[in-house]
Amino acid sequence: xxxxxxxxxxxxxxxxxxxxxxxxxxxxxxxxxxxxxxxxxxxxxxxxxxxxxxxxxxxxxxxxxxxxxxxxxxxxxxxxxxxxxxxxxxxxxxxxxxxxxxxxxxxxxxxxxxxxxxxxxxxxxxxxxxxxxxxxxxxxxxxxxxxxxxxxxx
Length: 154
Description:
Layout: H1 2-27, H2 43-47, H3 58-62, H4 72-86, H5 92-120, H6 125-149
Helix pairs in contact: 1-4, 1-6, 4-5, 5-6
């Protein structure tokens, strides 16, 4: 329980920071975040790119102004809150939702890592940190799911 809480707090904090960086850059295009260490190590460039919203997939399908084209950081905040709250709920239903959302976040993390490496050619430290947190949550949720699938012995 403590591990989940720590992962969710860290993930929510990183997601909120991503939202802050995106907002500040929108207000002032010269803004540079603390995570901008070099030309190719820039979270500001990543968060301000098309890929920083809707996984980069919503804009070409529904348009830049679509209500579904939300910042990835906002989705992250909701994800980590859900993980934290549902982590305290017992039972298979909660475990199934936790595992399903974790698998989805892991797939999204792999997608965005590929975008970082092969399209943006960037090293976003905040992004990579959230990918790691997502994989750790997936591991926790998988273990919980497996434990609930074991037959009870008397």
